[in-house]
Amino acid sequence: EARPREEWTGQVGFILSAIGSAVGLGNIWRFPGVAYENGGGAFLVPYLIALITAGVPILYLDYAIGHRFRGSAPLAMRRISRWFETLGWYQVAICLAIAVYYTAVIAWALSFFWYSFDLRWGDDTTTFFLVDYLQVADVGGADPWFTLDFVPAVLIPLVLVWVVAIIVLSAGVARGVQRVNLLFMPLLLVAFGVLVVRSLFLPGATDGLNALFTPNWAALGDADVWIAAYGQIFFSLSIAFGIMITYASYRRRRGNLTSPGLVVAFANSGFELFAGIGVFAALGFLAGQEGVAFGELEGITGPILSFVTFPALVSQMPAGALFGALFFGSLVMAGFTSLVSILQVVSAAFQEKLSISRRQAAFGIGGVAGVISVLGFSTTTGLIALDTLDNWANNVGIVSAAVAMCVLVIWVARRGRELRFHLNSVSTLQVGGWWTFFVGVLAPLVLGWMLVSRIQTLLVEGYEGYATWYLGVVGWGAIAAFVVFAVVLTLTPWRSPVDVYAPWPR
Ligand code: PHE
Ligand code: NA
After folding, report:
1. Closest-lying ligand to the alpha carbon of 340?
2. In the chain, N or C terminus with fewer CB closer than 10 Å?
3. Cα 23 to ligand 1 centre (Å)
């Protein structure tokens, strides 16, 4: 290798950064609602099975590839087989696409953190979020589907998020990415811990917890519940789109991989459960305040949970301002540590391909992606674009990358044995033949089925009632753009030596 590779300073840096990537907005706004809608307490059964049969095994596959082939996703994939580089770039494209809108959500959280102090949102939090803050255009009605009408309240924090992200990236793995995680992860745990404990003491908290955890065992017979469990694990661990390949490539040569992987997986799920408890306890309080049965509450997942329902709840609490600040501060920290991980995937890939410094990569990527992000997501049509791109990137992009990775690496290149030996040669906790079965057979089957059924649903039912041409451009168009990007970059010549590499250990 031309330059010595950057490294985490130690095991703690690696583990905290990997947890920082995994613990994101999905833990806070996605898990509680998904669990509630898919069997409540009974959901924990398919969820744990999905964690063990697909989550941990694919996490190990990512680790093994990144650590053995010591490269960003395209380089590591190329070292497995010449044309797999295209899959690596497809993963990079997904990361880029996610980064451009994920920054916008962090920007919203930053604004709402600020608004917490004087409860700026008032009584009608739906109107505040959609009309006063986002100034959402009436698309399909009076307004066009795409505008350049900028919303300054979104634009300013969005630019700020990009500037900070560029600074962190250009500081490098140890002095940038790792530092952010060493600072934010403990802070996040404390802030969120205070929040959850406070929620538990609110009147009505037990109603929320009962609603979340009362098991509906019949749900286990429903295939959709199992798909939801695999989908949640998969999204939540951020596996199969290059992040964990990249992070593991900065792990020192003899660094243990399998036990840290378990720590990361269980920390992420633990945080999710913890968030479920906090969010539902707080929702139980809200139901009581509004005098409705828990089942009649609306807006209990996604952006609406965070930016409409939570503000409403905060307004009705004693010392709500503090609670709001802790909540939105937590969103910012959880989101930002995930953001740096996806951007590091892109940065590493371009550094290696074009033989440029991390500074050049940070400014180049941050510049181009930052402009796209601002044009697409800080205008009055940003919300609809964000919603559409998010749905396609997650349901079609990530899942297709995962299926392709398992099939190509295990079946086409037949590297299952080699990668398992690699894991075992550096780790104390050994993985058995079950691992090859899970990543080679079970995961591709389950995920392949999930992919087909989701594509079918999108083709037949569309999405959210948005115009078909719009879904064609922003949804399917994004996937087509990922493929074109991947092919073009594969065909671009390497400017750094890539084929002079000997895998280690032999
Ligand atoms: N795993 C993250 C979560 O649960 C999601 C994520 C998305 C992480 C994109 C990194 C990049 O929220
Ligand atoms: Na997560």
Report:
1. 1
2. C
3. 7
